[in-house]
Amino acid sequence: MGRNAGQLALDTIARPCRALLQGCIDAPACPLALWPSSGTSTKTRDGLSTSVHWLLPALEPAMNDVQSELEHAEEMLRAAMLAADVEKLDALIEEDLLFVGPTGSLLSKEADLGLYRSGEQRMSAIDLQERHFRIGTQAAAVSSLAFVVGSFKGQGFQGHFRYLRFWHRSTTGWKLVAGSVSQVDR
Fold first, then answer.
1. Is 0.70 surpassed by the pTM of this model?
2. What is the pLDDT along the chain (186 residues), one digit of tens a residue?
3. DSSP code of residue 55
4. DSSP assignment of 106-136
5. Domains defined for the chain, CATH in brackets
6. CA 51, 54, 59: angle at the middle one, nearest 5?
7. Percent helix, strand and coil across the chain, each rounded to 5?
8. Side-chain half-sphere CA neighbours of 104 within 13 A
9. Would you say the C-alpha torsion 51, 55, 60, 66 has a positive or negative sign?
10. What stretch of H or E contains 170?
11. Residues ≥6 apart with Cβ < 8 Å to 39
12. What are phi and psi of 39, to 5 degrees?
């Protein structure tokens, strides 16, 4: 083979997050299951197998880098939405976007960009209140809560909205592939 199981595990999970590791450890397809453990594997108090617990400190910087990249992508998206910058939105959004709007309607990338291009959708404030990340090697989910003020087809609106966005790492950086937004009662 030429490569030991430990190297294969490191190569296969170059940038996972702690949450994904915790769900993965005992799965038969988990690359970490390939890592040879001495004796019986036991669980630590955070639920991780002792055979892979040594790996987490080494992965923390990579996870932090990925989260920083995603925070930057999210901020670029927010700024583009506020400026109705269709060119920047176009660069951040994958061609085959699936987006579920607050009414439950499914929007494509062209439909979403069309709302900004025509001026039918305007955002005057997007004040972020919380953000949660679930990060994998090539994909991530980001949940955000924001107080949003804007207008849609001539009607003003404001309120708390929960966004759930799915990002994919492409050769040009993180791209938005799917998402949804729902108004939240607060």
1. no
2. 444 443 333 333 333 434 344 444 444 444 433 333 334 444 444 444 444 444 445 445 456 789 999 999 999 999 999 999 999 999 999 999 999 999 999 999 999 999 999 999 999 999 999 999 999 989 999 999 999 999 999 999 999 999 999 999 999 999 999 999 999 998
3. T
4. EE-HHHHHHHHHHTSEEEEEEEEEEEEEEE-
5. 5-54 (no CATH), 61-184 (3.10.450.50)
6. 120
7. 35, 35, 25
8. 0
9. negative
10. strand 155-170
11. none
12. 75, -150
- Say how many C-beta atoms besides its own lie within 10 A of residue 102's C-beta: 14
Phi and psi at residue 115, to the nearest 5°: -65, -40
Residues in CB range of 5: below 8 A, 6 or more apart: 34, 35, 36
Please, which residues bridge with residue 139 across strands? 168
